[in-house]
Amino acid sequence: MRVLALDTSTSAVQAALVDLDDDELFLTSFRREIDSRGHVEKLGPFIEACLAEAGWAAKDVDAVVSGVGPGPFTGLRVGMVTAAAFADGAGIPVYGVCSLDGIGGNTRGRALVATDARRKEVYWAVYEDGVREGEPQVGRPEDLPETGADYAIGEGAAKYAGELAVPAETEPVYPDLVKLVELAAPRLLALAPSEQLTPLYLRRPDAQPAKGPAVRPASGK
User: Fold this and answer.
1) How many C-alpha atoms does 162 have within 13 Å on its Cβ side?
2) Which residue pairs, CB below 8 angstroms and at least 24 apart, start in 127-131?
3) Distance CA 158, CA 172 (A)
4) pLDDT confidence of residue 204
5) Do 2-99+175-189 and 101-159 fold alike per CATH?
6) Measured distance CA(194)–CA(63) in Å, rounded
7) What ranges do the domains of the chain cover?
8) Strand partners, 33
9) Which CATH number is correct for 2-99+175-189, 3.90.640.10, 3.40.630.40, 3.40.50.150, 3.30.420.40?
10) CA-closest candidate to residue 174, choices 80, 112, 101, 121
11) What pLDDT sits at residue 22?
């Protein structure tokens, strides 16, 4: 099964083509660039480049897997809308996976995974031998509760290493697209129905609709 995987939940713009053969996965082509403002401009060309490198056409893709966050509103929305549009145009299913699981799923021991939520906050979750405990949350790194984690990993952990109560990896780590496909594999192999992608924003977007003038009832005159 040929799978297009996308994630734009962090400052990394990412696209990959992954071959899923029963329980084995093979990375066929991959593009990543760290650019927190480049999701719109780069994701489409990255998909085209991956297809060209693999010698595939859009019609050769069997399914799409997308990271669904948590992540900042604008960047996350770009990846999910692109994933849904590609799947709809190709007539193939699309599946969502928590983006933090693309990092935490590769960890060992007890790990705190934290990505940059901006506003001096992080999106975070705790993983025990690669399995997430509870739901992702958002908060200031210095205000996180005691988690018992042995170490912290992720873009947010690297950025706020000094504020976290556990040792943090100093190099940013981003969601692993092959891991996202692996986590979606049971649905992919079962040919499960396509999903409506639901983003994990965890808070309201920065931009809010402007309030219009108050509408007063007609006087009747």
Assistant:
1) 1
2) 130/104, 130/105, 130/106
3) 5
4) 54
5) yes
6) 9
7) 2-99+175-189, 101-159
8) 13
9) 3.30.420.40
10) 101
11) 87
Written as one string, the DSSP assignment of 93-113 is -EEEE-TTHHHHTT--SEEEE
Q: Which residues of the chain have pLDDT under 70?
A: 204-221
* Residue found under tokens 């994933």: 83
pLDDT at 206: 46
Neighbours of 196 (CB within 10 A): 7
Token pair listed for 169: 């990896």
Paired residues of 27 in beta bridges: 18
* Cα–Cα distance, 46 to 150 (Å, whole number): 36
Specify whether the backbone of 146 is left (phi greater than 0), alpha (psi in -120 to 50) or beta: beta
Residue 96 CA to residue 101 CA, distance in Å, equals 11
Q: Which of 104, 38, 29, 94 shows the shortest CA–CA distance to 70? A: 104
CB 221: neighbour CB atoms within 10 A?
3
Q: Report d(CA 102, CA 67) in Å as an integer.
A: 8
The whole-model pTM stands at: 0.90
Distance from C-alpha of 17 to C-alpha of 187, rounded to nearest angstrom:
17
CB distance 106 to 84 below 8 Å: no
Two structure tokens written together for 159: 């950025």
Provide CATH code, domain 101-159: 3.30.420.200
Q: Which burial class, exposed, middle or buried, applies to 131 when counting CB atoms under 10 A from its CB (0-12, 13-18, 19+)?
A: exposed
| Residue whose token pair is 């200031």 | 140
